[in-house]
Amino acid sequence: MNNQQIPIFITGPFKQLLTMDHLPLKGSLKDAQLEIIEKAGVVHQAGIILEIGLFGELCAKYNSAHPEIQYIESDMIALPGLVDAHTHLCWAGSRENDYAMRLEGKSYTEIVRSGGGIWDTVTKTRNATDVELKMLLKMRADRQLANGITTCEVKTGYALNPEGEILLLEIIRSANQEHSIDLVSTCLAAHIKPKDFDGGATDYLQILAEKLLPIIKKEKLTNRIDIFVEEGAFGVQEAGKYLLEAKKMGFELVVHGEQFTSGGVSLAVKVGAKSVDHLEMIGVDAITELAASEVVAMALPGASIGLGCQFAPARKLLDAGCCLAIGSDWNPGSAPMGDLLIQTAILGTFEKLSNAEQLSAITFRAAHALNLSDRGILKKRNIADFIGFPGRNYREILYQQGMLKPTMVWESGNEVTKKL
Questions:
Q1: CA angle, 152 as apex, 331 and 254 as ends, to 5°?
Q2: End-to-end CA, the chain
Q3: Which of 18, 106, 310, 340 would bridge 328 by S-S if both were Cys, CB 3.0 to 4.6 A apart?
Q4: pTM for this structure?
Q5: Residues 211 and 161: beta-carbon distance below 8 Å
Q6: Tell me: the pLDDT tens digits for 90-141?
């Protein structure tokens, strides 16, 4: 079938369409820099954008191609599909008891001693069946898509042994094949050293490097490797050795860093990671170092809300020239809310981020953190992932602090709203 036989669709008119095009990857942004098209339309074919412009002009231009018109009758604001570049969606069980204990002032050590913490989720995830885990993942993916997220990163890290981590990656791949959302997997087998591992942290990482990573690479289960660099998890030196081994195999690297202690930023810059995620405790020198690099600064306000701690200094990161992305960190322990738009709006309020900075952090800058250049911007040749919010002014979206949700979602040109 040639292109002439593949149907062309024109979707619109949108009261406003924000392309998120012509904006820099790094540094601060003003709302005046946003490209906004009124009475706009999107021309797409086979899931790819052909053109963005005025709806009426596009209908006239493509009239001879007999396009299928997807007419928007009510006032609607269009944005690129949102990108959640940091989640932990593949788990079983719940940790509401941990949250209640934190509210009563219990320390993480006390919570762990009572049977909570990451190991509680590991135990429940290991005991769940493949069917249960995929069902839970797809349910969470449903909610993400309904909230306008068309691309979602998903980490492993709740099996903590080679066979279990492979199984989680296979489940993510299978769910991705069956679901409308794009799921991007990341191996976080280096989440913590498992309790049942007979050896030290360095020994565990060596097992992962020798017995897990080669299988992942051979089976093409993921191209992304993450590690938690923190006191109680893995130190900078041992993490660096592990990451460099992964890099030699051709993996992209990610670092959980600077959440409670320092060191993660320098490591991420040294090994050339795609992003360093958390950054609640980042200092002035580390901000300068990060800004001078190509590593994306990933703020995770959901963890700050869940733990009741300070936010990553997003304003300082942007003003220093960093590329700021925002992820939900949706997980059962520290970030159970899992609502990217609400979290972004809250962070924006406290850190004084412009609409442009917030929306960039959950569209094209978040896509860049996943090394994806074909989404997050509505422009020719990009994937036709876009969403529609009811309203007449794009500022309403963040003004309502995430409570205004998209009522229409297109993934690869297909409207998936009605399936949710």
A1: 75
A2: 31
A3: 340
A4: 0.97
A5: no
A6: 999 999 999 999 999 998 779 988 889 999 999 999 999 999 999 999 999 9
